[in-house]
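Input protein
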Amino acid sequence: MPDLNTIAVHFLPELILTVGALVVLGYDLAVKGRDARQAALAVVTLLAAIGATLWLYQWPAAEVFGVTAGGVVLRPGAFVSDGFTHFFRLISQVTSLIIVLSGMTYMRGRTAYKGEFYALIVFAALAMDLMAGANDLIIVALSIEFLSITSYLLTAFLRGNLRSAEGGLKYFLYGSITSAAMLYGLSLIYGATATTSLPEVARIVGDPESLFVNRIDSLVLPALVLVLAGAGFKIALVPFHQWSPDAYEGAPTPVTSFLSVGPKAAGFAVLMRLLFTAFDSHALSGAWLGTLAGLALVTMLLGNIVALAQTNVKRMMAYSSIAQAGYMMVGLVSFGGAQLAGIDPLGSVLLFILTYLFTNLGAFAVIIAVDHAMGSADLAAFAGLMRRSPLLAVSLFVFFLSLVGIPPLAGFVGKFAVFGAAIASGQVGLALAGVLTGVISVGYYFKIVREMFFADPPEGAGPLVVSPSLVFVVVLTLVMTFVVGIGAGPFIEMANGAAQALQPALEAVAGG
C-alpha cells in the first residue's frame, strides 16, 4: 500500500493544480477583482504542473491512494500514475494554459468575474488529470462529474448573454441525462463483479470459471453501452453530440476552444482505460469493437456533412470537432492490429490527439481574435482578414490545411497514423470512409478561406489589433503544427510510450 510520500510524489501535478486554483480564488477575493494578476497566477500554476508532470516521467509507474493522513483507507491503485496518465496530464495542462493565454483579453472586457474564470480553467485541468489516471469506477464517475460541472459553469459564464445561458443550459440537460445513464451502467458493472477496481474487473472477466461469463450478454454489454453514453458525451460522438453546436456557439469563444480539445481528450483517456484495462477479454472486445466502428463511421459522416450548411464559424467548428472525434475512434477500433511505420495502433489515437491539440487550439485562437474585434463569429466577420491581419489569415489557412490532413503539417501525421492503423488491422472500408469524409471538410473550411482572402473587409474596418498573449498563442501553435508535421519521430515515440501502459491488454487479446 503506497505511503504518504509516494502519494505526494506521484500526485504532485494534481496537488499543484488544487493549491493553485484555490490561490487564484483567494487572491481574487482579496483584491475583489480589481486587477488582472489572476491570469498570471493561473499561468504559473499550469506551468508548475507541466514541470511536475515532465519530472514524473523519470519515475516508475505507481499506484496512488492508500492510507490518508486521517487514517482512512482507500483502495490502492484507484489512481495510477504511469506513462498513459502523464501523456494526458500534459494534454490537459497544455490545453488549459493555452486557453488562459487566449482568454486574457477576450474575458477582460466581457465579465467582472475574471478570477472565477481562471480558477475554473485550472479546476478543469485537475478534473482531466483525474480522468486520465482513474483506475477505479468511483474515480471514473467522480472525475467525469467534476469536469462536467466546471464545463457547464464555463459555458454559461457570460451571465448577461442569452446565448451563453442557453448553451450552458442545453449542455447541462444533455449532460445530466448521459451522466445518469453512465452511473447506472457503472452500478451494473459493480453489481456483476462486486468490485470497483478496473484490474479486478478484468481479472473476473478473464476467469472462465467466473459466474461473470454467464452475465456478459444480459448485463455487461448493456452496461458498457450506458457507460459509452457518458464517455461519448464528453467526446461528442454521434448520437451523443446534440449539445455541442449550441454550447460551442453560445459559450465564450475561449471556452469553445477548451471544449473542442480538453474534455474530448479526457473522454478518450477514460474510454481507453476502461476498455483496455477492464474489458479487454476476447468475449467482450469482439462486441464493442463493432459498435465503436459503427459510431466512428456515422460520427465522421454527420460531422462533416452538417458542417457544410453552417454560417457561424463556431457552430461549423463544433461539427468539425465531432468529425475529428470520429477520426480518433477509427484508431481506437484498430487496436490489436499490426504496427504501421512504427506507430502502435493505440499510439495512433494518442498521436492524433496531440496533433489535434495544436491545430485546433491555433485555429480557435484566430477565431477568438476575430470575435473579440468584430463582436461576431459569423462568416462575414472574416471578410478581408488578409488585408486587416495577414498573420491571422495565413495562420488560420495553415491550421485548416492541417485539419484537412495536408503534409507536411501535424494533421497529416495524425490522420496517417489512425488511417494507417485501420488499414493494418483490416479496417480498410473505415479508413476509406475517413479519407472521403475528410475531402468533404475542404468545402466548409475553404468557405472561411474564401472570405479571408477574396472578400472585401467591412466598410471602415482598419487593421485588426491583436493582444500580445493571443499573438503568442497563434505563433506557438503555428510553429508546433509544423514541428510535429516535419519532425514527428519524438512525438510518435511519446505516443507509443504512453500506449505501452495498456500493452498487457493488447497481448491478452492477441493471445486470446
Observations:
- The longest strand covers residues 62-64.
- The beta strands are 62-64, 79-81.
- DSSP finds 21 helices and two strands in the chain.
- Residues 162-193 form the longest helix (32 residues).
